[in-house]
Design a protein that fits this description.
By secondary structure, this protein is of the alpha+beta class. Among the domains are: 120-258, no CATH class; 270-396, no CATH class. Helices cover 58% and strands 7% of the residues. It has helices spanning 2-30, 33-46, 65-68, 73-93, 101-111, 120-128, 135-146, 158-165, 169-179, 192-202, 209-216, 218-222, 226-233, 237-247, 295-302, 308-345, 347-352, 362-369, 373-380; strands at residues 50-52, 270-275, 278-283, 291-293, 384-387, 390-393. The strands form two sheets. A four-stranded mixed beta sheet has the order 3-2-5-6, with helices on one face. A hairpin with a 2-residue loop joins β2 (270-275) and β3 (278-283). It starts with a helix and ends with a strand.
């Protein structure tokens, strides 16, 4: 009982001490580049000890040398990032402790991640996890899902995937049929015709006029050549028009229901390019103000004629400023480490495109770079990578 009480007290004390830092660190880690730039500008307006380095080209990242010299900061940062999971585990085991509504609200504010809309691929993987498959079939199905674009269409045929992977084409055909039974109806189709037919089948309309029109006259339908369809099917143009109206109610891009709100402008955190035959990454550090602690305020603390209240205020601002600088530097370092892992594991994708994308989990990346899985999840949220194949969200990989 005594040990349990001490553990409870220590956990609460840890939350109270780290909560402000946790809030800022997680916010910086998961904030996209353009928003981070604005956030840093706001911090500069409220913290007078922060100043921007005039020569950004001489710095490796948005941090001053004194601040990043602390080798223990990464460990501190990871403790902050994993505290959410530890707190969840602790509270699950501590049934005797009843938190007030105020405590719950604070925890919600401190620990909840910025909401991220589920992608089509994530949803399909979730449905796949509800099916009983062998380990080999699951990997094959994940490969198929990795080749489905945001509109819900298959970008690589079973023949191509079989050729690239060495897995029999029949396995891909079998598992593609399974995925085509998933929600939303029409997902996994090879073309628009198959997409519409899957949706009609799902609604039990295999024996309808609209099904026959899509199945046998898709090209004429797309060009609205209704008289030609009517002539070939020996029916009236009005009947074709009614069938076309029903077909128009189907979804030609089923995957778009998972699409995030359109963004006017995407600024990649990372650019991937080839240098001397090898892929290398470049962090977009230029978009983030490069900060340092002003020497003016350090001098004010050193002066004896300034009162303790002034010195305490400045010390507090300096501590906050240093933590901000360290957090930004750690954000950039974490994103860099993740990007390096993506590039090293996805060379085939970079060379040949989405059909060569390899299955990869956040757990694997976290283990490889020595951080908590939640750190990887937050770090890739809303971040983009410019590659030879185009610009992709980092979580796409």
């Amino acid at each position: 009982m005594v040990a349990h009480g001490m553990q409870q007290t220590q956990s609460l004390a840890l939350q109270q001490v780290l909560a402000p830092q946790l809030q800022q660190s997680l916010l910086i880690l998961q904030t996209p580049l353009l928003e981070l730039r604005n956030l840093v500008r706001q911090e500069m307006e409220t913290n007078p000890v922060l100043e921007e380095l005039p020569d950004q080209s001489s710095a490796d990242g948005p941090a001053d040398v004194e601040s990043v010299a602390d080798n223990n900061f990464k460990e501190e940062f990871e403790k902050l990032a994993s505290l959410d999971e530890e707190w969840r585990d602790y509270m699950a085991q501590s049934g005797s402790y009843s938190r007030s509504q105020e405590t719950q609200d604070k925890r919600q504010f401190f620990f909840d991640s910025i909401p991220v809309q589920e992608t089509l691929q994530q949803n399909l993987i979730g449905q796949l996890n509800q099916t009983a498959l062998s380990a080999d079939d699951r990997k094959t199905a994940e490969m198929i899902i990795g080749n489905i674009d945001d509109n819900g269409f298959l970008q690589s045929t079973p023949e191509q995937m079989a050729l690239n992977s060495g897995i029999p084409k029949e396995n891909f055909e079998k598992l593609l049929a399974l995925i085509q039974s998933f929600y939303p109806a029409g997902v996994g189709a090879r073309d628009l015709r198959e997409c519409l037919l899957i949706q009609l089948q799902r609604h039990g309309k295999e024996n309808t006029l609209e099904y026959k029109v899509v199945s046998e006259h898709m090209e004429d339908l797309g060009k609205r050549r209704f008289p030609e369809i009517a002539r070939r099917m020996n029916i009236s143009v009005e009947e074709v028009q009614k069938a076309a109206d029903k077909i128009a109610r189907l979804n030609p891009r089923p995957g778009q229901i998972f699409a995030a709100a359109p963004q006017n402008y995407v600024l990649p955190d990372v650019t991937v390019g080839k240098v001397d035959g090898e892929y290398q990454i470049i962090l977009n550090n230029e978009q983030i103000p490069h900060l340092r602690i002003s020497n003016l305020y350090k001098d004010i603390i050193a002066q004896d004629n300034n009162g303790s209240e002034v010195k305490d205020y400045i010390r507090d601002k300096i501590r906050s400023g240093k933590f901000l600088i360290r957090s930004i530097h750690q954000r950039q370092q974490t994103i860099s480490n993740i990007a390096q892992q993506i590039v090293s594991r996805q060379c085939d994708f970079l060379e040949h495109g989405p059909s060569h994308l390899k299955p990869m989990t956040m757990r694997e990346i976290a283990d490889a770079i020595g951080v908590h899985e939640t750190t990887v999840s937050r770090a890739v949220s809303g971040k983009y990578m410019a590659t030879p194949q185009g610009i992709f969200e980092m979580k796409y990989f």
